[in-house]
């Protein structure tokens, strides 16, 4: 059986990565395992330090990559993380960058109970397109797509587009 693609799903925290990943895993024509990398890091202790004030971890990137490599080799993966430059370029078949208007993003992060400085930092990063720039610098432009994620209609149409992309990708793999 053809292996599924590896999709890097990235964007500032709160842009909708986990929501998209859950729907995508449900609607994909081929099984996709959703890895929420932040949760994965915490569960497996793949971090060096934890910063109480910022409520964030310093990830042990070498251990993380070693840990993920066998899963990537199997294929059929959604790597959901707020950064994407850590992953080797060869891992990704598609890189999806989610975007959100900063007012909406602020509300989402406030609801999540983030400390104010973390909300501010993430909002500024979204305005300055930090994750998008990172994706563009780390991967070939033809595999990087940017989707707005502000409402349910966009969520559904984004997932439909990714499902269509997967269908074509699978056909291309079979014809190789
Ligand atoms: N396209 C969207 N339309 C409406 N609400 C959304 C959308 N994307 C995300 N949300 C909401 O925003 C919040 C953060 O989404 P989440 O998927 O957890 O973001 P991330 O994984 O990027 O941190 C959740 O409450 C989710 O329901």
TrEMBL record:
It catalyses: AMP + ATP = 2 ADP; ATP + H2O = ADP + phosphate + H(+). Its main location: cytoplasm. GO terms for molecular function: AMP kinase activity; ATP binding; ATP hydrolysis activity. One of its GO terms (cellular component) is nucleus. It is an enzyme of class 2 (transferase). Its EC number is 2.7.4.3. It is found in: Cytoplasm; Nucleus. ATP binds at residues 14, 16-19, 112. It holds the Pfam family AAA_18. Keywords: ATP-binding, Cytoplasm, Kinase, Nucleotide-binding, Nucleus, Ribosome biogenesis, rRNA processing, Transferase. Residues 111-121 are annotated as: LID. SUPFAM superfamilies: P-loop containing nucleoside triphosphate hydrolases (SSF52540). Residues 36-59 are annotated as: NMPbind. Gene3D superfamilies: P-loop containing nucleotide triphosphate hydrolases (3.40.50.300). GO terms for biological process: ribosomal small subunit biogenesis; rRNA processing. Belongs to the adenylate kinase family. AK6 subfamily. Broad-specificity nucleoside monophosphate (NMP) kinase that catalyzes the reversible transfer of the terminal phosphate group between nucleoside triphosphates and monophosphates. Has also ATPase activity. Involved in the late cytoplasmic maturation steps of the 40S ribosomal particles, specifically 18S rRNA maturation. While NMP activity is not required for ribosome maturation, ATPase activity is. Associates transiently with small ribosomal subunit protein uS11. ATP hydrolysis breaks the interaction with uS11. Interacts with small ribosomal subunit protein uS11. Not a structural component of 43S pre-ribosomes, but transiently interacts with them by binding to uS11. This is Adenylate kinase isoenzyme 6 homolog.
């Amino acid at each position: 059986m053809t292996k599924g693609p590896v999709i890097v799903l990235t964007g500032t925290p709160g842009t909708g990565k986990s929501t998209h990943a859950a729907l995508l895993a449900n609607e994909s024509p081929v099984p996709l395992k959703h890895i929420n990398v932040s949760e994965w890091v915490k569960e497996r202790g793949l971090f060096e330090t934890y910063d109480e004030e910022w409520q964030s971890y310093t990830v042990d990137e070498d251990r993380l990559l070693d840990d993920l490599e066998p899963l990537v080799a199997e294929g059929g993966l959604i790597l959901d993380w707020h950064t994407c430059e850590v992953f080797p370029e060869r891992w990704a078949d598609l890189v999806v960058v989610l975007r959100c208007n900063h007012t909406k993003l602020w509300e989402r992060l406030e609801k999540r109970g983030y400390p104010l400085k973390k909300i501010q930092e993430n909002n500024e990063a979204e305005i300055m397109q930090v994750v998008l720039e990172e994706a563009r610098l780390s991967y070939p432009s033809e595999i990087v797509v940017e989707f707005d994620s502000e409402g349910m209609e966009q969520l559904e149409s984004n997932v439909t587009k990714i499902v269509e992309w997967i269908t074509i990708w699978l056909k291309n793999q079979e014809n190789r």
